[in-house]
Structures are given as C-alpha cells and as structure tokens.
Specification:
The protein is α/β, with parallel strands linked by helices. The chain contains 6 helices and 15 strands. The longest helix has 17 residues.
C-alpha cells in the first residue's frame, strides 16, 4: 500500500474557453457558487492529511499569491513556458518534486467529495468514472484492474480519465526521467504530460484506476458550462 505525502496542482493554463472571465482571472481562481475552484482542491487535499501542496502557475501567476494568506504552507512554482508549450512544461517545472508518493491534479475542477483525493493507493493511476454514454474525453480500457489502452477520442464503454492521478515513488521517479527526456532532450513541447504514461511510454507503467462517481467532481470546460452552474456570470455575456 502506498500513501501520498505530496501534491502537485497544475494551474498554469490560460483557460481561453472561459473567456471573458479569464481575461483578468486565471481559470482555477474563478469563484463558482462563492468558492474558488482551486480551493475545493486544496481543501480536499488538506482534509485527507496531504499538506505538502505545490501549485504550478503561469498565466496571471501573481493572482494565485493571495492563496498564501489562507494556506500559508503552500508553495508556488513558476512555469515561464506556459504560453508556448503544452502542460508537459508544467510537470517539467515541478520535476524535482517527483521523488516520493505523489498526487498530481489539475486546479480547474470542483471537488464535491473529498474522498476522491484519499492518499492511500495500491497502484499508480488515474481517477476514473465508468462511461455510461458517449463521450469525447479520454477513455481507458481496464482489464482485471489494469489499464490496457486509452483512447484520445473517447468512446461509449470503458472508464473516463479524470485529471487526478497518484504515482508511487518508483513510478514518480520514472515519470521525472521521462518528462526530462521528452521535454528537455527531445524538445517535445506540444504534448500533455499524461501522454507520457498513456501513449509515449505505456510499457514502463502498470496503471490501475481509482473509481469514483460522476457527481464527485465537476469539470467546467467552457464559459457556457460556467453559466449553467453559476448564473452570476451571465453578466459577462455582453463582452463576448
């Protein structure tokens, strides 16, 4: 049994599909029903005893510093390449933290059930929800608890991958080596860091999944979806 002792929160992206709100506010710092999205992640981690929390920032990075008033122990890592590279650059910026059991999660989601951030795990892998209708999100095929393949284009059966993942110390160190090789040595700047275990080097990982329910988490991918969840943002419609 492994146990997470450190968290890396990815928060560097521009969130362009959430414009105009993200013109002045980074997507994870958007308040949804009176609470910032990233705070639901931080609070969920702390509720599970995970207090070594590191946030990778980029776009409007200074806006995140206010979090230090409420969470004085969190640390910030700057990703200066957020605007020219995909999110592999964020994990590269945080690569030195990949030396123990770790959870990696995006900041721009709403956690409704803190249990999905529990620190204990048997096998490295991603949180996932069983697919019950057609989706265009990444879908994993799982056989006897082991991920055997992943589709970038979605599907109608399998397990939808969510951006919460746990990595054993051994796998985290392997991930560090591969991120460094792909990003720094090969100049692979246009991929997601998740491409490394899922598509570029799947033979070096034996991944499982952490089952959860669709209502445990909310991913808001567009301005239209934001309005549906929090109607106060209707006031921004005139800026579109």
């Amino acid at each position: 049994m492994h146990k997470v002792t450190r968290a890396i929160i990815m928060a560097a992206g521009k969130g362009e599909r959430m414009r105009p709100v993200t013109d002045t506010t980074p997507k994870p710092m958007i308040e949804v029903n009176c609470k910032r999205m990233i705070e639901t992640v931080i609070d969920g981690l702390i509720a599970n005893g995970i207090t070594d929390i590191n946030i990778v920032t980029g776009y409007l990075g200074d806006k995140f510093r206010v979090l230090g008033q409420k969470y004085p122990d969190i640390r910030f890592i700057d990703n200066p390449l957020y605007d020219t590279c995909n999110n592999i650059s964020s994990l590269f910026a945080a690569r030195d933290l990949l030396d123990r059991d770790v959870i990696i999660t995006d900041a721009d989601q709403i956690i409704y059930n803190n249990n999905i951030l529990a620190p204990e795990f048997d096998r490295s892998g991603y949180n996932a929800v069983r697919v019950d209708k057609e989706t265009d999100e990444w879908v994993m095929t799982v056989d006897n608890g082991i991920v055997t393949s992943c589709s970038r284009t979605g599907g109608t059966t399998g397990w939808q991958l969510y951006s919460i993942s746990r990595w054993s110390e051994c796998d985290a160190r392997t991930l560090k080596e591969l991120v460094t090789m792909e990003f720094a040595e090969r100049g692979n700047r246009d991929v997601y860091w998740d491409d490394i275990p899922m598509f570029l080097h799947p033979d070096l990982f034996t991944l499982g999944i952490r089952e959860m329910n669709r209502g445990d988490i909310e991913e808001i991918d567009s301005f239209e979806e934001l309005i549906k969840i929090d109607s106060k943002y209707c006031e921004y419609k005139g800026e579109l």
